[in-house]
Amino acid sequence: MRFSDLVHLCRQNLFRRKSRTILTVLGVVVGCCSIVTMVSLGSGIDEQNKQMLASMGDLTIITVTGTNSAGGMQAAGPMGMADSSGTATARLDDKAVKDFRSLQYVAAATGHITYPSASLTAGPANRYTNDAGTIEAIDMAQFDAMGYKLVSGHKPERQGEVLAGQYTAYDFADSLRLEGDNYRVAPMNVAESCTAEERANGCRDKSDVQDPFFNILTTKITVAAAPSDDSGSTSSSSTATTTENTASASGSGTQIQVSGLLKEDYGKGQATSSGLLMDIGMLKDLVAKIQPGAATSSLAYDSALVRVQDIDHVADVESQIRTMGFTTSSSRDMLDSLKEQTRSIQLILGGIGAVALVVAAIGIANTMVMSVTERVREIGIMKALGCTVHDIRAMFLVEAGAIGVIGGVIGCLVSAVISLAINLIRYGGVSTEHLQWAILGNGTGDESARISVIPWWLYVFAIAFATLISLISGFGPANKAVRVPALDAIKSNQ
Q1: Is the pTM of the predicted complex or chain greater than 0.85?
Q2: Where are the transmembrane segments (predicted)?
């Protein structure tokens, strides 16, 4: 019997009992839809986890530290990263950084130095002050390769030009204003809205965000060594006048110009958000000016930042660096942990959905058993006409498989509609832009993570699984049909 004949018989037999076929297919639709929807919720959690980590910084960045990373310079590891792994036995220097760049899968690497604390002033008579300014330095030749981004301005092109973090201007207080009104609320870390009670407890929302006191791109900044108290520790309460006088008296103050604002990315250091970023050579020159007695040779690398070509290779690169005697930290361990949790959630949700498909499989088996019982005479006639056992078994399996395929396809379509509706409700609107975001999750500029995410492979898996379950359910009735004796079947009234 040709396959086209089997398809013709399948269509004829399924439409013979339309109501029963529709109900059976409906069971498969519900089961398939349950699996896809449940697993899509787990995929949505995975997307939200990735977006949460991405908001902390570049996931392809590895922070490397060596035996010289302790001391006067503070650690400059990205916020939110996993704890360092390995034990440092090697010194972090220019040669080590060069070795990192030669490793497979490494896109760029740079040494990283953090100046502990500096006094920054700006405006007329140094009116605006920041007594605990953060200054970081990298090899500016690696700026683009490391993936740094600018939100405005340009990279340093002349001597004395530096980059500022996206919200650095908000770190400056106005020394001529009363306390409580001498600072500006930055747009980061504010709530969407605050109740009266929350506001009384210090809550700030988007309505409180203000422009900084001055334009940091057009105002020169004076950098001086941070004033110290009697114990030698940095004082955070020094006024602008004290800073100015200290700088003038010692001749240690120097002016710099901010040429561009960095896009916030804690994976590349705090300076991208709040602080100044400059070339390593410029930092050494700056320290020599504001602290003439300090030895610039002591400005050893706090750490090195290594950017990997792809997040899938982060673990390999970390392993290679640790074998060289350095310690490493990255977001990989946290990401792997979150992925493991997500997989567990997906298995649980998928198992719940699979129960519905198992129930549908029972319905398919019942339908096929009834079909065999009703078509005993037909089976006998087919055998008498020369149909082989293989042909009869194939006929019933094709019918069972068709129920699975039809139910699986419809179930996937229904799941897609449900997923779309869930995401649009999450987004709060329906438009071309919203639809693009709900389906693709990108291209709209929106930073919200979708609740329901259906990857293409899930559709394929759902249809294949529904078909397999249907074939397994129909195998028993098909064998029962094969075992019906031809003469007895012809005599049957069924």
Answers
A1: no
A2: 21-42, 347-373, 394-422, 456-475
